[in-house]
Amino acid sequence: MAGILAWFWNERFWLPHNVTWADLKNTDESTFPQAEDLYLACPLAFCVFMIRLVFERFIARPCALALKIQANGPQKAQPNAILEKVFTAITKHPDEKRLEGLSKQLDWDVRTIQRWFRQRRNQEKPSTLTRFCESMWRFTFYLYIFTYGVRYLKKTPWLWNTRECWYNYPYQALTVDLHYYYILELSFYLSLLFSQFTDIRRKDFLLMFMHHVATISLITFSYVNNMARVGTLVMCLHDAADVLLEAAKMANYAKCQRLCNVLFIMFGLVFISSRLGIYPVWILNSTLFESWEIVGPYPSWWVFNTLLVLLQALHTFWSYLIVKIACRAISRGKMLIHTFSYSYWTSFFLFILFFFFTLI
Asked: Is 199 among the domain residues?
């Protein structure tokens, strides 16, 4: 085990030349990010999850009911042991051959069996009330963390001059505010990861799981090798659009279509301008060119920048989806916000690439 840990924490991978882990040990004068700091995020993730349950039960749900959002879900399929066994153990989408066999076995017509499977599949979808409560929780968290990030960053020199992210790197002291910002973001995404196993299982379960793992990996990676300054810029920039997306979803679930349309347009403008404009010009320019000039490249620098460039590719694809949905909605005369979700499957490559370069 000691040999594996020594290999994983190889200084020549994580740190610039002539820097060792001993140089970044905490002293009475300075405090630096330590990998063991992140252990705190696990119990905090549980606390965040419990806060979410209380919030959804006593705040979000009453708000949803006040907006006349129905608590009942889709119509339930009538109990049938044979069809239930096929649904749970074999397939949720039976082909024609299986439908005909079930029709003969149950003496039901094929259309009735197809309707049963459709209703049974719909049972696994969360109700509008559940979706509203989840969106309200995420909206509240994103609004809080984005507001905190802006208030914190406006006091820092690297918000106004990104070269400050690399001066004296990696000997940049860890402040209480920065530590709180990182741990809270990490705890939130850990809670989302854990809650997938307790929430109603959805069809994008694996894709969302990979997305959360990729996000957690990026946050952890930037903290461990003390790229936390530029990490705060990335986190704050990404939280900005998420606030508007969750607000638009809430308006859609409440059937406030005009408000939903306005919020979705605002979301699209903020998303595209921040992810296709500010992110490459402000963030990538700093991590790729300013850091090269001031610090110079080393193995984990290549990994970090590769992940950020891949993230830019995802931004481009997501922006295409937003424009596509907007054009389709305009042609239909309605903004279909519930059809939009980030294409999480591509986040899988961030996760794989992170561990691939780590192994190298």
From this structure: yes
What is the percent of the chain where pLDDT is above 70?
90
Three-class SS state of 183? helix
- Look up residue 247 and give its two tokens: 């607000």
Residue 279 CA to residue 188 CA, distance in Å, equals 23
Say how many domains are in the chain: 2
Helix residue ranges per DSSP H, the chain: 2-8, 11-14, 41-55, 61-66, 81-89, 96-106, 110-123, 128-153, 157-160, 176-195, 205-224, 228-253, 257-273, 285, 291-294, 299-332, 347-359
Backbone angles phi, psi at 167, to 5 degrees: -65, 130
Is 8 inside any structural domain? no
Range of the domain at 108: 81-124
The C-alpha atoms of residue 104 and residue 279 are separated, in whole angstroms, by 60
Decide if pLDDT at 191 tops 90.
yes
Classify residue 75: in a domain, yes or no: no
